[in-house]
Each structure stands twice: as C-alpha cells, then as structure tokens.
Amino acid sequence: MSRIAYVNGRYRPQSEASVNIEDRGYQFGDGIYEVVHLHAGMFIDEDRHLDRLERSLREIRLPMPMAREALRLVLRELARRNRVTEGLLYMQVTRGVSRRDHAFPKRPVPPALVVTVKRIPPYPASVDNWGGAAITQPDLRWARCDIKTVNLLPNCLARQAAREQGAIEAVLFDPDTLMVTEGAATSFWIVDEEGVIRTPPLDHAILPGCTRAALLAELGESGLVVEHRPFSLDEMRRAREAFITSATSFVKPILRIDGAAVGDGAVGPVVRRLFDIFARHVQGGLKNAA
Q: What's the order of all strands across the beta sheet hosting 112-119?
C-alpha cells in the first residue's frame, strides 16, 4: 500500500504529493516542524509537541495553519489511512507560497501544512542493546536553536560526520567556551563524577525537548535529582554515564565519545533506571488515553 501524505488540505499518495516550488519552506527554510512518537496507536506527549509547535510558530510570527483540535483530527486520520500504530509522525508548517522575496509577503498568504507518517519498531524491550557511540562537533547553528525551525543544515553536517565515524550522534559544543549544548538532533545529559544527573539549562542555544520535559516530570515523582547546570567537554569526558533523549531515541545510552569509553563503557545503573522510568511513562500514556 502506498504511503499517504497530508498536503494543504488533501490526503494524497505520497509518491504523488508535491508542494509549490515557491513555497517559502523550500526557498528560505521559513518554517517550523515537529516529530511525534506514535506508540500502540497513541501519540506520546502530544500536547507537549503541539505546545512547542505553537511556541515556535509564534517566535517566527507565523499563525497556526488550523485550530489545534482540527490538527489533532488530521494527525489521527493520517495515521489511520496509513495503518500505522508504531511510528513517527512529521508535521511541517511554512509561511506558504509567494513570489521569492526575503521579507514576508506583503499580502498574507495561508500557511502551508505537510504531514507524513512512517513506521518504526516499538519502544525497545531492553536498554542493553540500545546504546551507541557519539562524537563531538563545534556548534555552528544559528542563535535561536530554541525554535524548531526546518533550517537544519548544520545539524545534517554534524550527523553525517557522526555516521562517517560509526557513531549515532554528534554532541555539539560552543567553540569559544567549550561548553556542551546538545546533540545534533537530541537533548544530551550526563551523570557526573559525583553521580548527579545533569542537563544544560534551556536558553536560546538549546531546543526545549519534549522527551526531555517528559523525563524531567517523571524524575520529579521518582525522587531522583537533576541539576540544570552547564558542563564542559572536560566534565563530559569525566562523566560516569551519558545519554540522549528525543522522540526517536527515547532514553538512549551513549557508551563512547570520540572513541573513549564513557565510565566503564557499559550501560550504567542510572541510565538503566531512566530507560525503565520513561518506558513506564510511555505505557502510562496509553492507560491515560484508555
């Protein structure tokens, strides 16, 4: 069965779907995107993703393409038409189609909305074979990484560098201060030498990850303490454990960075517990929706 996409009000076979060549997302990267995890037919942390979508759109002065409840219906209908119960749903909103000019269109045009969905394996049953390696890369992105814009060329280059070195992620750092910011497409965390879970505080250099926020909420109820405190490359290299979070990575251990083992090079007890905590969060979302 051909995959179905939603493009500007119509459901179409993905092989036939298209956008105008003067769409500002194509011409300028003038748009916002979101990726939502679909598990057992339910959207995980859906409200967090829609909240972030609306915030990002406000930051670039772009209206929602439709009311939130209408957008929810589109997401569910697209998943139904594609018969996807375990997958990732991608939505992208751009400033629409207008004659090429860097400034916004003089006469407002309707925002353009594209939504696609693809299948992925379900949440892994065990953390033991879930980890991977990372490399470090200077953070060359723009100054508003807190906005989930479709401008992702520096992220793509960093991820490609990681792939070429057999790694799953690139950990980005400020080239002036040598402080870690985040992964190329993930939030980055460490368990430091004292056993404290640390993640950099949110600012314009860091995307407010929805999986990050969900995990933090769960940790508040578990009694585990997290410090929102910056850390340097040197502190990262002395960490006991490291991990990434995202809608696609969930909670994923990082076992080696730049070829050197993190801690003893095995999945540590803290990350193991966090993996289980987030798995319960995912399953709890299903119970709450039932």
A: 10-13, 4-7, 112-119, 87-94, 31-39, 42-43
Q: pLDDT tens digits for 264-277?
A: 999 999 999 999 99
Write out pLDDT tens, residues 62-71: 999 999 999 9
The pLDDT-based confidence of 225 (bands split at 50, 70, 90) is confident
- The dihedral over CA atoms of 155, 159, 164, 169, expressed in degrees to the nearest 10, equals 140
What is the end-to-end Cα distance of the chain in Å, rounded?
29
Report the C-alpha gap between 78 and 149 in whole angstroms.
Answer: 23
Residue 114's Cα: distance from chain center in Å?
Answer: 17
Query: How confident is residue 287, by pLDDT bands cut at 50, 70 and 90?
Result: very low
Structural contact between residues 198 and 184, judged by C-beta atoms closer than 8 angstroms: no
Average pLDDT estimate for 151-156: 97
Instruction: Note whether 33 and 155 are within 8 A (CB).
Output: no
CA 264 – CA 256 distance, rounded (Å): 9
- The distance of Cα 138 from the centroid of its chain, to the nearest Å, equals 19
Contact yes or no for 215/246 (Cβ under 8 A) = no
Is 154 within 8 Å of 29 (Cβ atoms)?
no
Quote the pLDDT of residue 44.
Answer: 96
Q: Say which DSSP state 23 is in.
A: B
Strands (E), 51-202: 87-94, 112-119, 132-138, 169-173, 180-183, 187-191, 197-199
The b/e string for 257-277 (b: 16+ C-beta within 10 A; e otherwise) is beeeebbeeebbebbbebbeb
Q: How far apart, in Å, are the Cα atoms of 83 and each of 3, 72, 76, 120, 122? A: 9, 16, 10, 13, 15
User: Would you please indicate which residues are annotated as catalytic (active-site) residues?
Assistant: 148
* pLDDT of 290 higher than 50: no
Cα 107–chain centre separation: 33
CA–chain centroid gap for 233, Å, is 22
